[in-house]
Amino acid sequence: MLALPFVLLAALPFAPQLHVGDTVPPIALTDQDGRRFAIEDLRGRAVVMSFIYTRCVDSCALVAAKLALVARTADPRSLSVLGLTVDPNYDRPAILRRYRARFGTPARWTLATGEPGAVLLLERRLAVEPEVAGAGRTDHADVAVILDGAGRIARFVPGNDWSAEELAALARAANGGVADPRVAFEAFLSDALARCGRGLVSVAMGTLLATVALLTVLIGVPLALAARPK
User: Fold this and answer.
1) CB 211 within 8 A of CB 218
2) Which of 72, 111, 182, 220 sits most deeply, having the most CB atoms within 10 A of its CB?
3) Was domain 3-179 assigned CATH 3.40.630.30?
């Protein structure tokens, strides 16, 4: 039984990776109640999307809880919250419905599955890279994706240590609102860590701090000397 998803993943056709500014391609999805929908149906609202699967034993529950919190605090008229399974062969609507109920606010966010080949191909294009690891486990990259009201990718938020507040602020900014500067700066650092590696970011931060210290000396010492009583 486990060989079938593996074969499916290996047989997926090549498709180019999606980037910021790209429109998410059309894909038919099915929500936890068995209703068909498409990401295009969410146009006009920002979308916060991340990736889980119900047999996950580690970080997926944390991600799902954060998605539920975003949904609980956001205006559904301007923001949609979507969790897309990386295990579409197993995660059918009834299973997703029971899983979503564990996190409260069931009417405010959506868990989705779909035709396995199409779902897994989209996730590969979003650099989620689902890979069957055996014993009901699917390895995948942790990332959240922010879409603007036109269905374009506004931002990738790598990892799973983002907060619900951060995602909501980024979604507001993507849809024409103003993001909290602190949240935007934290998102910038998170993005830099993912793209450049922690070592390079540490060097960059060290260089920045050294520059600030040097400027403090160059500016502060003359001011202090000038302020000394004659």
Assistant:
1) no
2) 111
3) no
Distance separating alpha carbons of residues 159 and 138, to the nearest angstrom: 16
Token pair 């599955």 is found at: 113
pTM of the model: 0.72
Question: Which of 120, 123, 172 has its CA nearest to residue 9?
Answer: 120
Residue 220 is predicted with a pLDDT of 58
Residue range 27-32: mean pLDDT, rounded? 96
CA distance 37 to 213: 55
State the pLDDT at residue 176.
76
Give the closest residue to 39 by CA, choosing from 87, 81, 96, 97.
Answer: 81
Q: Is 56 exposed, middle or buried (0-12, 13-18, 19+ CB in 10 A)?
A: buried
